[in-house]
Task: inverse folding
């Protein structure tokens, strides 16, 4: 609600002799509650007949509900506001930075894009059906638009295999052994890059790309269903944490997503080096706290809605991810199967 609407709303209540009220601004839910403590001459009857008008001030299309709390001697108006807007991936602008990720629209309908290299590691959690895979697709499509090589890991195989023919996709793994091979490669790239940077007196990949050569591409590892690898007794979590800690200068980023956020899945060593955090709808406030260190994600109602915490923003951002109608169609259109053979690669 903007200030002008808010002022008109206050004037309207005053015209009914209602002076004592407050609005419960629950930023995570789409329901707003107005608590009213009436005085003797407050015109509650007129208020109850004009609830549509109250809804209108808040941009709600549904009629608000008026409840009388006899015990407390006050009234409550419940207003169900519209769902957060969303728009299709294709209609987002490209964003700025080294690897701009199209995260979605905020509650004012403004495009939210974050530079992955500024994070540079991101963890995502949320219940099944909350919209993680859809968000991951728009993240992968965003990374594909940048100067990056991508490593995918997907134990469910089907979801990410559609990207397999694209040249910028280095490999797609689906089990601990295959992920381990990807990590071997990433670790060796990390070491050789540190040497190369040192030799060329460059602080980081940004400087190297500016001064020496753009041949040094960013490397992004994206793991869906992270819990598969976090709970078995492998050394994967330690290796991931190690790469995440050191990767920034060498231009290596990791993104992990899980539907089972718990202290076991996101242990301290992982959380410490993943400064980008996204909570889609969680099943409890406790799960929300595990991901973003605060509750709220359990109240998100719209599909694809999430809360982003990143070092680039002072406070958390509530967003709705881009919707993607038919991911296979987008991939086919942007990356036709014969794309690289056409160019003789
Ligand atoms: N931003 C969005 N806008 C509209 N619908 C969405 C959005 N994100 C996800 N959905 C829908 O929600 C459903 C579940 O999404 P999905 O990404 O498969 O969730 P998850 O991977 O968390 O189980 C899908 O039908 C998807 O189309
Ligand atoms: Mg999924």
Result:
């Amino acid at each position: 609600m903007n200030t002008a609407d808010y002022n008109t709303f206050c004037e309207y209540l005053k015209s009914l002799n209602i002076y004592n009220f407050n609005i419960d601004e629950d930023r995570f839910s789409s329901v707003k509650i107005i608590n009213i403590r009436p005085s003797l001459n407050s015109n509650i009857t007129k208020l109850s007949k004009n609830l549509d008008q109250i809804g209108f001030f808040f941009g709600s299309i549904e009629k608000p509900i008026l409840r009388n709390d006899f015990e407390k001697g006050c009234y409550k108006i419940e207003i169900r506001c519209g769902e957060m807007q969303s728009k299709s991936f294709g209609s987002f602008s490209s964003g700025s930075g080294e690897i701009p990720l199209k995260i979605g629209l905020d509650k004012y309908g403004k495009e939210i894009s974050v530079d992955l290299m500024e994070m540079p590691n991101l963890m995502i959690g949320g219940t099944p059906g909350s919209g993680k895979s859809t968000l991951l697709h728009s993240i992968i499509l965003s990374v594909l638009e940048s100067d990056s090589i991508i490593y995918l890991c997907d134990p469910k195989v089907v979801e990410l295999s559609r990207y397999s023919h694209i040249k910028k996709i280095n490999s797609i793994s689906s089990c601990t052994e295959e992920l381990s091979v990807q990590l071997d490669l990433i670790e060796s790239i990390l070491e050789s890059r540190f040497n190369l940077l040192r030799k060329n007196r460059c602080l980081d990949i940004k400087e190297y790309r500016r001064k020496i050569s753009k041949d040094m591409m960013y490397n992004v590892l994206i793991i869906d269903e992270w819990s598969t690898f976090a709970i078995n007794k492998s050394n994967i979590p330690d290796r991931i944490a190690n790469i995440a800690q050191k990767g920034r200068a060498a231009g290596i980023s990791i993104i992990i997503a899980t539907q089972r956020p718990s202290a076991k899945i996101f242990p301290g060593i992982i959380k410490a080096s993943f400064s980008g955090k996204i909570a889609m709808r969680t099943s409890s406030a406790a799960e929300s706290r595990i991901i973003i260190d605060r509750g709220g994600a359990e109240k998100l109602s719209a599909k694809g809605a999430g809360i982003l915490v990143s070092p680039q923003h002072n406070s958390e951002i509530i967003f709705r991810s881009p919707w993607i109608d038919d991911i296979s169609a987008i991939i086919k259109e942007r990356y036709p199967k014969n794309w690289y053979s056409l160019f003789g690669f």
Observations:
- DSSP finds 13 helices and 14 strands in the chain.
- Residues 132-133 surround magnesium ion (ligand 2) (CB under 6 Å).
